[in-house]
Design a protein that fits this description.
single chain; membrane; Chr_Tranpt_l_chain; Chromate transporter; mainly alpha; about 400 residues; globular
Length: about 400
């Protein structure tokens, strides 16, 4: 029995590691890879259970694709299965981005042409993400209006509290507008976790969110400050990796922990590696405090996602049958689109598109990604070469 359990856990680790090495293209693409591997090929769960799990992870803040992977690991092999699924999927991109940060550390990269090329890649990638998400998440006038108001508020009042407030107001608006609409009831997800354990995880999630800022003020420790910033960023992000950009930028660039050039260079490099975009935190942590800082940042930014998945899986079926909850989620998702556009304008657009040639090159990269359907690593390589030649 123990041997079969060990083989099961090793299988989870190996399959997730293969996905971590090959899953390019962002969270939507990751969900497609997961569906092909876990549902079609291995039949670890059926279509309805997978759709149910994806709905849960879209509802929660944090990296949706990573949370789906964790949930599948939990359903397949319990708590340890979830941990191994996360480790396998995340480790390849963490290692690559930490190495990239260590190579760049100490270099004068502010005026390097290839760095400017990476920044233009970031423009094309985020524009493509906004385009796809807007089509899916703002299909009607009400949600378009929520997105517009979120854009205006987060653009004119650029604070961490603004984004949280906008998300809460959007949830209330969605609750009011869509509370009468009924959704199809999902099938039951079988989860080998108790509700008592789920309550412990949720208590830990909210406890850390409240306690870490207090500990930060009391100790003045740079490590606690760093952990708190990454944990809070991972706790308050709806919509996946691209939305974490403004939170991380406002946490670390104004404070001088890293330059805007280094920040956007890492963001461009994160497009070139497979796996979740949240591993961008590993790059920031490594720039700030070497490889140990990269590992600490990775643990801190993904910890909320882990606690939320473990804390909500046992309750999701009853939650998802409530049309008021799904209505609130529609409002939140619409606000995410507005927040994304705000982040696209500043810091990405304002610090990157300076001359007409920059806009022309960004348009070329966008078409390569959106219309010619070229893989992201091709876009990144083209951006580096083009930036070098233009520089």
């Amino acid at each position: 029995m123990k041997q079969s359990k060990l083989f099961l856990l090793l299988e989870i680790l190996m399959v997730s590691a293969k996905l971590g090495l090959t899953s390019f293209g962002g969270p939507i693409a990751h969900l497609g890879y997961f569906h092909d591997e876990y549902v079609r090929r291995r039949k670890w769960l059926d279509e309805q259970a997978y759709a149910n799990l994806v709905a849960l992870c879209q509802f929660l803040p944090g990296p949706a694709s990573s949370q789906v992977g964790i949930g599948i690991g939990v359903m397949r092999g319990g708590l340890l299965g979830g941990i191994l699924a996360f480790v396998g999927f995340t480790t390849p991109s963490v290692v690559m981005l930490i190495l990239f940060a260590l190579i760049l550390k100490g270099m004068d990269i502010g005026n390097a042409g290839w760095i400017h090329g990476l920044k233009i890649v970031a423009v094309a990638v985020v524009a493509h993400a906004i385009w796809g998400m807007a089509q899916k998440l703002t299909p009607d006038l009400s949600r378009k209006a929520i997105a517009l108001l979120a854009l205006i508020c987060t653009l004119l009042w650029q604070t961490a509290y603004t984004q949280v407030s906008v998300i809460l107001i959007a949830a209330v608006a969605g609750f009011i507008i869509y509370k009468g609409q009924k959704e199809d009831s999902p099938a039951t997800i079988q989860v080998p976790l108790s509700r008592r354990f789920a309550f412990i995880c949720l208590g830990l999630f909210f406890g850390l969110l409240i306690f870490l800022p207090i500990l930060r003020e009391l100790t003045g420790s740079s490590l606690v400050e760093m952990f708190d910033s990454f944990y809070r960023s991972g706790s308050l992000v709806f919509g996946g990796g691209h939305v974490v950009l403004p939170l991380l930028e406002r946490e670390f660039v104004p404070s001088g922990w890293l330059s805007k050039e280094a920040f956007l260079a890492g963001y461009g490099a994160a497009q070139a590696v497979p796996g979740p975009l949240f591993t961008f935190a590993a790059y920031i942590g490594a720039v700030m405090d070497g490889w140990a800082g990269g590992l600490l940042a990775t643990f801190a930014i993904f910890l909320p996602a882990f606690l939320l998945v473990l804390g909500t899986l046992p309750f999701w079926v009853s939650i998802n049958r409530n049309p008021k909850i799904t209505g609130a989620l529609k409002g939140v998702n619409a606000a995410v689109v507005g927040i994304l556009i705000s982040a696209f304008y500043t810091p990405i657009w304002t610090s990157t598109i300076i001359a007409p040639i920059d806009f022309a090159f960004a348009a070329l990269l966008f078409c390569m990604l959106a219309y010619w359907k070229l893989p992201p690593w091709v876009i990144v390589v083209t951006g580096i070469i083009g930036g070098y030649l233009l520089g």
